Amino acid sequence: MRYAQGGGLTAEGRRRREQVRLEAARRFEQRVPSAVIAAELRVSERSVRRWRQAWLAGGEAGLASRGQATQCRLDEQQLAALDLALEAGPLAAGWQDQRWTLARVRDLVAAKFKVQYTVPGIWYLLQRRGWTCQIGARRAIERDDGAVEVWKKETWPRIKAPRRPSAAGSSSKTSAASR
Question: Rounded to two decimals, what is the model's pTM?
Answer without folding.
Answer: 0.46
